[in-house]
Amino acid sequence: MASPPAVPRLPPHDTRTPALSVVDMHTGGEPLRIVLAGCPEVVGPTLLAKQRYMRQHLDHVRRRLMFEPRGHRDMYGAVLVPSELPDAHLGVLFLHNEGYSSMCGHAVLALGRFALDFGLVPAPPAGAREALVNIHCPCGLVAAFVECEGGRSGGPVRFHSVPAFALATGNRRDPSGPAAQDPTNYTVSLGWNPRTATNPPHKAFTISKKFKINHPDSEDLAFLYGTILTDGKDAYSEEPTTNICVFADEQVDRSPTGSGVTARIALQYYKGLLELNQTRAFKSSATGSVFTGKAVRVSGTLSFSFEVKCGDFKAVIVEVSGQAHYTGTANFTVEDDDPLRDGFLLK
């Protein structure tokens, strides 16, 4: 039997369509597929404009990487783009089974490692134990701090969120039946109920007749992205509180969810259940992986000379920590006569 070539080569493919080269990672079990090459230029003066351009003109890239047969309905991705912000080391567009998200904590934790290891940020000074990576997400600039040794990543990564705030509380939907007693076994069906009666994604929409989602900075950010089911243990404890997040088109996060930890910390602080710099652990009911979070800056805190606000809302900066790992690389190709070239999803 002939030996395979020492250097893998691309299989027969449509040479007019560049291969999509990716690095795959996971954070707490949640995948991240980072596009290295093959994506056409994403045009736009701002990151949000680039996101709109990709949705309108390059959505086939998302479908090819997220959907079967190259991906699966719970795959997650990142396309790196230039940022208009002078302090940003990189900009990123987040991809999932339905479209594009504004923030992704598990992806930021992975991208911090990736940016350092792949030379997207300056090498830290000799002896430095941590490297700063400024990542421009659609929601704003997020600072990631990557543990390192000898200029290479290793160990956990932490990030500081954009200002997080409680838009409203007390808008209840009353679950009934077995899902109320055992939420982890009914994640998708129960977790998705708030979304089923709304308008299409990426728009502001009404949860109930009494309340409309809005965002003080941009209408591009004014939509319900997903729901988080928890064990109800919001009061401070040294034991982890368990949750699972359902987002996009019934996509289930395997990790504790970085943006979900941000939201839960902000809400717990808002309710007076958590003090400044008090760390809480959050465990995924899917994989058992753990992230930690804490409120590190809040508006009105006397120990700081400035306020953290988002529009008129009092806000909090949340630090989230977790660990990402590499899982491999791939080159994805397309054959012109493949009727499923742009992918498909099974319900």
Could you write a compact summary of the structure shown?
This protein is 17% helix and 31% strand. It has 347 residues and is an alpha+beta fold.
Commentary on this structure:
This protein is an alpha+beta fold. It folds into two domains: 20-162 and 327-332, Diaminopimelate Epimerase, Chain A, domain 1 (Roll), CATH 3.10.310.10; 178-321, Diaminopimelate Epimerase, Chain A, domain 1 (Roll), CATH 3.10.310.10. 17% of the residues lie in helices and 31% in strands. It is built from seven helices and 19 strands. The chain has helices at 47-57, 59-66, 105-117, 178-181, 187-191, 193-196, 258-270; strands at 20-27, 30-37, 77-81, 90-95, 100-101, 130-137, 140-149, 152-160, 206-208, 211-212, 226-230, 241-247, 251-252, 280-284, 290-298, 309-310, 313-314, 316-322, 324-332. The strands form three sheets. The chain has a 15-stranded mixed β-sheet that branches. Strand 9 (206-208) and strand 10 form a beta hairpin.
Which terms would index this structure?
347 residues; alpha+beta; Diaminopimelate Epimerase, Chain A, domain 1; 2 domains; 15-stranded mixed sheet; two-stranded antiparallel ribbon; 19 strands; globular
Q: Which blocks of ≥5 consecutive residues have pLDDT under 50?
A: 177-209, 301-307
Number of helices: 7
Q: How far apart are the termini?
A: 41 Å
Q: Which structural class is indicated by helix and strand composition?
A: alpha+beta
CATH class of the largest domain: Alpha Beta
What string gives the helices and strands in order? EEHHEEEHEEEHHHEEEEEHEEEEEE
What is the oligomer described by this structure? single chain
C-alpha Rg (nearest Å): 21 Å
Query: What's the overall average pLDDT, rounded?
Result: 83
CATH superfamily of the largest domain: Diaminopimelate Epimerase, Chain A, domain 1
Task: Tell me the CATH topology of the largest domain.
Answer: Diaminopimelate Epimerase, Chain A, domain 1
In CATH terms, what is the architecture of the largest domain?
A: Roll
The number of distinct structural domains comes to 2
Strand content: 25-35%
